[in-house]
Amino acid sequence: MIPSKEQCDFTNPEEHFLWALRNLPNVGGVQQIAPIMILKGWSEHLWECGFAHRDYLESLADEDGFIHVSQLPEQTKKFQPAARGPRHDFNPASQWVGSEEPEPEPVRIPDIRQLTPQENAAMLAQYRAAGMIPDVTPQRDFAQELN
Questions:
Q1: Are 5 and 19 in contact (CB under 8 A)?
Q2: Is residue 44 part of a domain?
Q3: What is the reported pTM?
Q4: Helix, strand, coil % (nearest 5) of the chain?
Q5: pLDDT category of residue 25 using cuts at 50, 70 and 90
Q6: For residue 117, how far is the Cα from the chain centroid?
């Protein structure tokens, strides 16, 4: 059973958002229902992204309603778009990584106009070997008997 907001432990990342993730509305009004273990994972994910609910923040405030920034949860992971391949949300090479993880080196595609003839020949040979350029060897002519 998914706990209510009042039953959740806001200091536990797996429970912090658990109550808010149940029966999520979707386009067309169809509710999205997921097993509690998935919801716990989503709750923890949001916590690691640095989100915190208002009730939790209120519990951190002093008598004047102030919260020192050091009390706020820290973002411990970030989204890293795919370094290679299509630039869209469905590229599985994109991922969530630690917030201190460096960005990958960008892939540099050579400008073939700046390559030497030998370098271009080597590139073409690689494409042929991979089957990306068809073999240009002419086929031998042969005779065929027709009935």
A1: yes
A2: yes
A3: 0.72
A4: 35, 5, 60
A5: confident
A6: 40
Where is pLDDT greater, at 127 or 139? 127
On whether residue 77 sits in a domain, the answer given is no
Q: Which domain holds residue 20?
A: 1-70
Distances (CA, A) of 44 to 24, 57, 82: 17, 17, 23
What average pLDDT does range 79-95 have in this prediction? 87
Question: Are 74 and 90 a contacting pair, CB within 8 Å?
Answer: no
Token pair 């299509």 is found at 86
Beta-carbon contacts of residue 124 (< 8 Å; ≥ 6 apart): 133
- Is residue 140 included in any domain, yes or no? no
Query: What tokens were used for 46?
Result: 């949001």
Q: Which residues of 68-81 are buried (b: 16+ CB within 10 A; e: fewer)?
A: eeeeebeeebbebe
The total number of structural domains in the chain stands at: 1
Cα 77 to the center of its chain, rounded Å: 11
